[in-house]
């Protein structure tokens, strides 16, 4: 049973819009790769028993120290903590240190796991729970290879993933009220924002305008002759024009929460692919018009998107 699902991160919409070699582009591409690994692991865990209580992407705090758990499984007898890595290619361990095959030292993922496990144990004790924690670093990418690894490392290699699923199914036990209470307490303690979040500075001129494909992120979008459907020139996916405008507008609100939503601003942000008449019609159907003349703008009463933590300028 999934108690806290894995949500798509807000910053994901930034990636297709970075133009050229933006200083933050590589950093966020690495974050995307990590998220894709977590997504793949979540897909793998769809095969395990519903008796497991699962929490994904859990960010917690213990005595002013923040730590993040990629996946946590709760059962009556134990907790399974997983640190997911989407590393590609070959790595090796030498004298306890981790290196890429080219000799570049990287952060030891097992140390990251141990730190997380220690802090979780302390937090559980504070909550009044004394339950064993079994931690593992999961290497989800099938191209990953690790050389010279000690046999006792708490790691799960790509070739061992099927075995992990089998073991979890064999050891599944129906959760009790206390287990469910713990899962809900941890989910409730999740920090939506961390003071250490590193979000990029960006301005309007640095971001590509237009509507990108919801399937492949290509900007090769054109309006079909029916004037109510767009089509991607790269993958062929079609989408209703109204849906595309709303999707792109919500992204704009995430990136620039302080800016007012006007017909001209949305027309410009959508890359002028639709007429202003179409943009005005979509806004009128889905938003409430406030003010008049030069101060006229639209307000979305269905959701408060103003407190996102992203910093458009």
UniProtKB/TrEMBL annotation:
This is NERD domain-containing protein. InterPro entries: NERD. Residues 33-143 form the NERD domain. It comes from Siminovitchia fortis. It holds the Pfam family NERD.
């Amino acid at each position: 049973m999934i108690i806290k699902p894995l949500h798509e991160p807000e910053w994901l919409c930034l990636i297709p819009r970075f133009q050229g070699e933006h200083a933050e582009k590589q950093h966020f591409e690495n974050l995307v790769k990590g998220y894709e690994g977590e997504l793949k692991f979540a897909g793998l865990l769809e095969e395990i028993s519903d008796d497991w209580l699962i929490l994904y992407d859990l960010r917690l705090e213990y005595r002013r120290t923040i730590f993040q758990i990629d996946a946590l499984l709760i059962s009556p007898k134990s907790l399974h903590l997983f640190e997911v890595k989407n590393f590609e290619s070959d790595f090796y361990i030498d004298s306890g240190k981790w290196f890429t095959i080219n000799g570049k030292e990287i952060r030891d993922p097992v140390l990251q796991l141990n730190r997380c496990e220690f802090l979780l144990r302390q937090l559980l004790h504070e909550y009044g729970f004394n339950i064993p924690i079994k931690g593992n670093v999961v290497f989800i990418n099938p191209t990953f290879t690790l050389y010279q690894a000690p046999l006792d490392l708490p790691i799960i290699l790509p070739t061992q993933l099927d075995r992990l699923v089998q073991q979890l199914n064999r050891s599944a036990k129906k959760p009790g009220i206390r287990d469910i209470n713990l899962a809900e307490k941890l989910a409730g303690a999740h920090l939506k924002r961390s003071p250490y979040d590193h979000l990029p500075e960006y301005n309007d001129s640095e971001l590509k305008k237009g509507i990108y494909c919801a399937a492949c992120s290509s900007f090769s979008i054109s309006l079909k002759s029916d004037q109510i459907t767009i089509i991607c020139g790269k993958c062929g996916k079609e989408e209703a024009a109204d849906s595309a405008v709303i999707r792109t507008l919500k992204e704009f609100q995430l990136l620039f929460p302080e800016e007012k939503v006007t017909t001209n601003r949305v027309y410009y942000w959508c890359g002028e692919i639709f007429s202003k008449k179409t943009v005005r019609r979509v806004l009128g159907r889905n938003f409430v018009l406030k003010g008049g003349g030069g101060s006229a703008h639209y307000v979305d009463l269905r959701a408060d998107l103003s407190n996102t933590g992203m910093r458009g300028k």
